[in-house]
Amino acid sequence: MPALLVALPWGLLVGLPALATLACFARPALAAVVTAAAVAGIAVALVMLPAGGSLGATVAFGSFGRGALWLALAGITVAMALPAGPDDAPPGVLWLTTLAAVGLVLLSRTPLLVTATLLLVALVVPAYGPAGPGSAWRRTLAAGAVVLFFGFVAERLAVPQVTDLSLAGALVGGFLLVLGMTPFGLAQVRWLRGAGHRVAVVAGCCLGPALVVVASDWSGALGSLHLLRPNRPATTIAVFAALTLVGVALHALTARGWRDLAADGIVADLALAVLAVGVGSLDGAALALVALVVVRPLMLLLDRAALPAGLGRLATLAALAGAAGMPPAVSFAARLLVLGAALGAGDAVVALLVVGLVVEVVATGRVVLRRVAARDAVVARPGQILVAGVLPVLGLVAGLFPGGVLERVWGG
After folding, report:
1. Taking Cα atoms as reference points, which of 206, 204, 198, 193 lies closest to residue 79?
2. pTM for the whole thing?
């Protein structure tokens, strides 16, 4: 019986997303009920599991993975509450992507399963968006998965023909491809701008944090390589993440509304989290991912839903503060932590980070000052009104008490 009780939360954590995926494919009309039941069960499983728990030698997660699982849970919940557009993914695909995110977190140190999961994501998710950028993003994801697989296997087997320098190049290149960092991220940004709101939230808020967890879990392997400058791989990832932040911020200057700004912001927040991992600040990465889940779905909601006047102003103010990194938003605390950690990574990283953050503020202010109205707005349903009220409060609480968020959500 004790063994069964130990295995039960793990079974719920994997089984409930799988069952929700099958149920939503079979009965899409019951997606809301299925989501509510699955989310409740997964939350119970996460509460039952201790931080750093494991099941055998394959399934495990640390405190950083625990936080990513909570964010995936929040991401699918918010995504299902958003208005569904005609080009959006069906509920079964949304839950399949969430299942892939859970699998990446739990199996992040298992090369074959990580590669298989990434290839599945590359096959399914990009199809629900503009064809051109979707095809390009699919190729980037697939190439990154293959490169990472060979890097993972070479690291595990210690292949003598593969030098540590070649291994570092394979792992760094693979992570840059999979995470959509410069110079491989433009297709992902364009896909997010044209994809449906629900699938964009799931791709960014469920899948994105899971990919950052994989990069974090393998950063130790990069640090153990025998190189002339041992910290060079992590610093290289940080530099490319900072370049991505600058590039996406400049691209956001072309944003025509909340949807474009949210799409660019998803990649910018992921880049900030990757940069934080590269400079050794997991706390900064955690808060950056919290800001991603709180702010970007709110922007997409503002793009589609006609909210009551007072609530609409509150949501707009929260989206502005979160995207621009203004206090007391959680993104302000995240940027302070990352900036402080980046000071030890070199002047180039700090300069690029500051430029990217400043341009992002300008791009956000430009959209707000234009007073862009929701496109093809639909009258907000009760669930959407609830989301519009809860997300600003969560962002405020996380910004005022970032230590509590790190302890309760990420520290287990």
Report:
1. 198
2. 0.92
